[in-house]
Amino acid sequence: MTTITTHEAKTHLSRYLAEVENGKEFIIARGKSAVAMLVPIKVPKQKPRPKVGETLDPPWELPDSAFAPLTEDELKEWGL
User: Fold this and answer.
1) What is the pLDDT of residue 70?
2) Any residues with CB less than 8 A from the CB of 17 and at least 6 apart, and which?
3) Using alpha carbons only, what angle is made at residue 38 by residues 37 and 42, rounded to the nearest 5 degrees?
4) Cα separation of 35 and 11, whole Å?
5) How many CB atoms lie within 10 A of CB 26?
6) What is the pLDDT of residue 22?
7) What angle do CA 52, 55, 59 make, to 5 degrees?
8) Beta carbons of 55 and 74 less than 8 angstroms apart
9) Residue 16 has what pLDDT?
10) pTM of the entire structure?
11) How far apart are the C-alpha atoms of 80 and 75, rounded to whole Å?
12) What are the distances in angstroms from CA 62 to CA 19, 54, 65, 66?
């Protein structure tokens, strides 16, 4: 880990950020005292969004009994 001064950090911030993106870490010091660390952020990978019309869940089927006609008692229960 490389130590840099606050002046260096301010002057060359873009360069240091590019190095941090490549995995390098820096300690920022004021005088001889370390005050901060410049380290890469570990961002979790996001799942890609589904394409239009793409199904996310496995297909499901209705049982044949779902299409069976209602019995007389069931029709009366529903007031039909």
Assistant:
1) 87
2) 38
3) 110
4) 17
5) 19
6) 94
7) 155
8) no
9) 97
10) 0.54
11) 5
12) 57, 20, 8, 6
State the residue for tokens 């995995």.
23
Give the chain's residues under pLDDT 50. none
| Full set of structural domains in the chain with CATH | 2-38 (3.40.1620)
pLDDT score recorded for residue 21: 93
The span from the CA of 9 to the CA of 20, in Å, is: 12
CA 47 to chain centre: 7
Contact 28, 9 (CB under 8 A): yes
Q: How far is CA 41 from CA 15, 32, 66, in A?
A: 17, 26, 53
Using the structure block, give the residue that is written with the tokens 């952020």. Answer: 41
